[in-house]
């Protein structure tokens, strides 16, 4: 399992510096910025430091779109696309 990544107040901690991020632990990944697949949540500062930009990579934007579609399906029940 992972190391402790959630603060006492229920927010995800940055996996790099351990600072509390603005995301509650139960925030869907699709709704987050600065989230690294298979690693975890980074704070804004670390994300910029590591990736050199705040702009999310394409795969993450795609994942966000897929996440929204999934959410719509779950909310509306059976939907034909
Ligand atoms: Zn950080």
> Count of helical segments?
2
Task: Look at the structure and give the mean pLDDT.
Answer: 80
Percentage beta strand? 5-15%
Compute the gyration radius: what is it? 14 Å
Largest sheet strand order: 1-2
Overall SS class = alpha+beta
State the end-to-end distance. Answer: 37 Å
Give start-end ranges of low-pLDDT stretches: none
How many domains, as an integer?
Answer: 1
Helical fraction equals 25-40%
Task: Report the order of strands and helices.
Answer: EEEEHH
Strand runs, count: 4
Ligands, ions, cofactors: zinc ion
Shape: flat
Sheet having the most strands: 2 strands, antiparallel
Task: Based on the model shown, name its key terms.
two-stranded antiparallel sheet; 81 residues; alpha+beta; binds zinc ion
Structure commentary:
The protein is built from 2 helices and 4 strands, in the order E-E-E-E-H-H. The strands form 2 sheets. Strands 1-2 form a two-stranded antiparallel sheet. The protein is flat, with a radius of gyration of 14 Å. It has 81 residues and is of the alpha+beta class. The chain starts with 10 loop residues before the first strand and ends in a 5-residue tail after the last helix. Strand 3 and strand 4 (40-41) form a beta hairpin. It has helices spanning 44-51, 58-76, and strands at residues 11-13, 20-24, 35-36, 40-41. The protein has one domain (11-76). Bound molecules: zinc ion. Zinc ion is lined by residues 14, 16-17, 19, 42-43, 45-46.
């Amino acid at each position: 399992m992972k190391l402790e990544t959630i603060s006492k107040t229920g927010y995800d901690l940055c996996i790099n510096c351990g600072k509390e991020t603005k995301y509650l632990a139960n925030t869907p990944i699709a709704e987050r910025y600065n989230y690294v697949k298979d690693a975890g949540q980074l704070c804004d500062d670390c994300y910029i430091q590591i990736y050199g930009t705040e702009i999310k990579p394409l795969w993450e934007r795609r994942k966000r779109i897929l996440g929204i579609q999934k959410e719509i399906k779950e909310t509306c029940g059976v939907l034909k696309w």
